[in-house]
Amino acid sequence: MKCTYKLIDGYLSEVDNGRGHSVLMDLPTEAGGTDKAPKAFEYLAMALNGCIGTIFVDVARKMRIDVQELKIELNAEVGDTIDSIDYKFYIKTNATPAKVEKCLDTTERYCPVGLLFHKANVPFTHEIVML
User: Fold this and answer.
1) Is residue 45 within 8 Å of 51, Cβ to Cβ?
2) Most buried of 95, 108, 117, 122 (most Cβ within 10 A)?
3) For residues 88 and 129, what is the distance between their CA atoms, to the nearest angstrom?
4) Smallest Cα–Cα separation from 49: which of 69, 73, 67, 70?
């Protein structure tokens, strides 16, 4: 993967992934930015949340779990780095809670972004809420 960073103005920048997709990054006003986009650090939590969701849907399909609704609320405890991750997993499905838990455990083993956090020894906790 090759990414390109381009400064727009002040701290506002654009980062392109080389496949035609780009994101804006900025700092909040209290840090001297214009707050027109998330901080790079915030993209880490957003990437993790998106990865968990995407991999879960993929694993669920393979396990024949019908995901009717899915919302994941992720909270990252932040110090100098991300110290811990806690997320609530809201799901409407025909599957049992045990099957959803198994699917989520598999997801955590295969989510590439999550693996980076695990290798950095960032602890994860989660709660499943059946809708």
Assistant:
1) no
2) 117
3) 7
4) 73
